Model the fold of this input.
Amino acid sequence: MNCPNHAPNIDTSSPTSDVWYAVAFSLLLAMTFTWALSAIGFLIGASVGRLQATCGILLTGFLLLRQHRGGRARCLILSCFIALLAACLIISAITVDLTYDGWAYHQPGVIALSHGWNPVTEPVFGTWWARYSRSIGYPSNGPSIDALSTTVYPKALWILGAQAVVWGLPLDAGKYPALLLIFVVGLTALRALRLRGIPNSWAYPLSVLTALNPVCVVQATTFYVDGALGSCLAILIFSLLSYDVTRSGRDLLLALCAALLACNLKFTGPVYTALILLPFAVWWLFERRLVARDLLICGIAASVLLAASINPYFTNLRNFGSPVYPLNEWDVMEDQMSPGFLKEHSLKKLLISLTFSNLADRSFDNPATDERNFTSPFQLRGFEEFKKFGGTADLRIGGFGPFFGITIAVTLLAASLLFRGPRNGIGFAMVALGTLLSIVVNPQMWWARFVPQMWLLPVLVATAAGRSRITKALALIIVLLLGVTSLIAVIGRATSSYVVTLAFKANMERLGDAPLLVDTSVSELRFLPTLAYRLHEHGTTFEVAIGQCATPIYLLVIQGCKNGSLGP
Done:
């Protein structure tokens, strides 16, 4: 690939670029410190509290003060840090997450961790909930709750989200980490591209496109963790590209922070991280390019990873016999799509997902209905497809947008032409290889949110193709297609969040301060902890009732009644 290993003589360390990189570095460092201190604190019986965030920010500040001696630079970095954090908290707090997984287990995890749950000393969420639930008005005759997913899944994003609640902010403010990570991705990618000699006319749009990964964008105002994982992997990849040029301890530390978080966001995180790091590590060891200082930093990071990952991995191993329980026993794809689709080869499913309209995505009530929509890639194209793409957090078909199939085809053509050119970008090639390996290792790579790093392949190829006279036109096509896709995702997510938030608040206003009557025999029981907490925030509770509503109030799939409106 035609990307140089060493930057030519361009200004990559101007005061402005250095300040923005310091902001990205401080944001990720503060999040990593806060999470690690909380996760390690579980081992000594501590729960999530304000102390961890305070220590995390102070540690970050101390490192920044050592790096930046000038008072003006320090003030500017601090101001940008506070402004970005405040903006993300405000956006998160005023938008409501009404997604299925968000209510089922992500939000209960944030609620529990912010109110004293220690998943190491009390690993079963249901045990903690039975004790806590009465304090927020959960009815005494309400059904018992045992949210297995909340018990066993990695909790890094929940821990960070819980910090917002601990400091007195509403539950929805806990969505802020995903938004912060999008900013960090863009700033990290910009630094890496400029260090590698990419002109600003290409570096700026490519860094923006890297940050605006559709999976990250459509999940930015939800508690889903896939977008955050995609952001962490992007930070890891572009930090490695920077480190390959600078050999800077800061670039290595940024990459390791992203790796630590990625390993504790999802069960797939450790696998993806290892495969992305593997080609680089082998190459560096072969070339003897790792020095003692860097090995020491990596060793410290590995120790932190082991200590901070006791829950869930070692806890699951002790209690359930596998660190990735229940994935070792359950088929997580069951009922996610029709049986006919799931029986197809993974490559065929990927091809369908890349080329068919997302209106072939499963029906919420009946996944078998998607079969009738798998007749032609040209079927059901139109405005509704764009609307569904921007407004759905976990699309199974077309999750990277309606144009991604074309984008991948152009990417493959550009890559094939680049391989015939001079091979002076071995570091860049190692990153691309690691990214590709992390995608193909997952047999469910057809589902976009399971492999959010797939979005980076066209970006990486476009970066290399833009440097070659032969492939520059193809690079421009890739950038335009990605740009349109990201724009649709941003507009769709903003619109969808606005509509959902207005509808939720309108229903809460209709309810007033009267108890919500809920027929638990026909409601999703896993949603009840989130419902109880949100009603508590609103100043009311719910009561168990039986019967149909004359004028129902809908909160996701829970149908409730205002007191006095229950039918026979």
